[in-house]
């Protein structure tokens, strides 16, 4: 038995499923999850002493790689000053200023502790601001586990939402309308029917929770037009894409400006942080300025702000995202060439430092239905093969991959060589 297997057995005695977040349990790929002991740069080291090249990066935050000295120094300095006061600190203003500079659509920003809190609060704010209850989301987009957002469509173009999970009241889920990602005509149609009842559209501008699907040209632009026409709030959930697909996020990359933005992951440098912000006239409805309530005991925690601000400063260095995107494209192209050489049909796509690969005959994947038609069995075999080779990919066919600045050209070459080896066994 490996150390990881023993530790997993012990964990299951006290923690539901042995994990504190479901995807970590490896249910989507089989086998037992790997328990990690430490991480440095592009590498994770497990409890059995094996090294892995990491393409998860703690599910996004570790854009600099692990144990970056700048983050560690910032954290050590703050630990000596105190780990939290529940009162204002200057670093919160430094952080807010930095976020507003990097994301010009954000005039005011409120810190929270997770991506879930960020989207949940943005939705409440949009509803409070517009006085409307319905929201639109897209099938396959994940916005955290708040009640209104744990809803997906049935099979039609539009269904009144049915809850995705027991425990979500049907009367709340009904207010969430679920449409097809990348289908702007479906959006126009529903707005024609009930646009004046819709508070907001929430969208992952680069979908990263059904593998990785960039927006087709015109989709985000169309959402902007529809929201302008009907007075609805456009919310970009950039928890994943923010500071990752470009310094200014997906809105910077594609040039479409939302009213509100939800942030998470990179903004916390690995500590629990989220944020939501946007247009001043909307954000001024948040307490204590306005009537829409939102609060947090640990929000703006100085340790979390230190790690986050150090990360945002580091990624603001000129050329950071160009270099990281170049590496990511080299990885994508290398994987595709290796798959072609092995005769394995595969589509590879991405945006900035996010990527996805699909076992499919299709040249590209733009919709949820296409994702669902991919060969998941083959993904599972590929995942397990890569794990043996020391390459740590997301343990699910429905998650995006993340690169970090710590990856060397050699790491990428090693990853492609490992993939060639594994492709030959599929
Ligand atoms: N939105 C998106 C786009 C996400 O990818 C996630 C998490 N993967 C969330 C929201 C929720 O964030 P958290 O897990 O920090 O609550």
Automatic annotation (TrEMBL):
Assigned EC number: 5.4.3.8
Subcellular location: Cytoplasm
Record keyword Hydrolase present: no
Catalytic activity as recorded in UniProt: (S)-4-amino-5-oxopentanoate = 5-aminolevulinate
One Gene Ontology MF term: glutamate-1-semialdehyde 2,1-aminomutase activity
Keywords linked to the UniProt accession: Cytoplasm, Isomerase, Porphyrin biosynthesis, Pyridoxal phosphate
Organism superkingdom: Bacteria
Subunit structure: Homodimer.
Protein name: Glutamate-1-semialdehyde 2,1-aminomutase
Protein's organism: Marinobacter xiaoshiensis
């Amino acid at each position: 038995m490996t150390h990881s297997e023993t530790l997993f057995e012990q964990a299951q005695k006290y923690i539901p499923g042995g994990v504190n977040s479901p995807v970590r349990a490896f249910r989507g790929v089989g086998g037992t999850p790997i328990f990690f002991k430490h991480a440095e740069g592009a590498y994770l080291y497990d409890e059995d002493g094996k090294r892995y090249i990491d393409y998860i990066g703690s599910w996004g935050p570790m854009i600099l790689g692990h144990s970056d000295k700048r983050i560690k120094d910032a954290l050590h300095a703050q630990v000596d000053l105190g780990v939290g006061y529940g009162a204002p600190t200057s670093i919160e203003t430094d952080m807010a200023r930095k976020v507003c500079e990097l994301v010009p659509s954000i005039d005011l920003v409120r810190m929270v502790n997770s991506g879930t809190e960020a989207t949940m609060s943005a939705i409440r704010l949009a509803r409070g601001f517009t006085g409307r209850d319905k929201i639109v989301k897209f099938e396959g987009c994940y916005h955290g586990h708040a009640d209104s957002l744990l809803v997906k469509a049935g099979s039609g173009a539009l269904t009144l939402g049915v809850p995705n999970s027991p425990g979500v009241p049907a009367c709340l889920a009904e207010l969430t309308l679920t449409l097809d990602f990348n289908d702007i005509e479906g959006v126009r149609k529903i707005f024609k029917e009930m646009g004046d009842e819709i508070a907001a559209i929430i969208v992952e501008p680069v979908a990263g929770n059904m593998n990785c699907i960039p927006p087709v040209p015109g989709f985000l632009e169309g959402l902007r037009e529809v929201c302008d026409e009907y007075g609805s709030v456009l919310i970009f959930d950039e928890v994943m894409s923010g500071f990752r697909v470009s310094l200014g996020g997906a809105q910077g990359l594609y040039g479409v400006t939302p009213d509100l933005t939800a942030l998470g992951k990179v903004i916390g440098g690995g500590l629990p942080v989220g944020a939501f912000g946007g247009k001043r006239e909307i954000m001024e409805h948040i307490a204590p300025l306005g009537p829409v309530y939102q609060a947090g005991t640990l929000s703006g925690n100085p340790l979390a702000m230190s790690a986050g601000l150090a990360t945002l400063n580091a990624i603001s260095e000129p050329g950071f995202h160009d270099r990281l995107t170049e590496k990511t494209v080299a990885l994508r192209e290398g994987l595709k060439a290796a798959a072609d050489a092995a005769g394995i049909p595969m589509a590879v796509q991405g945006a900035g430092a996010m990527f996805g690969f699909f076992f499919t005959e299709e040249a590209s994947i733009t919709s949820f239905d296409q994702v669902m038609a991919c060969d998941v069995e083959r993904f599972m075999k590929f995942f397990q093969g890569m794990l043996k080779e020391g390459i740590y990919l997301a343990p699910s066919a429905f998650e995006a991959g993340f690169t970090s600045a710590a990856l060397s050209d050699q790491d990428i070459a090693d990853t492609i060589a490992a993939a060639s080896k594994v492709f030959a066994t599929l």
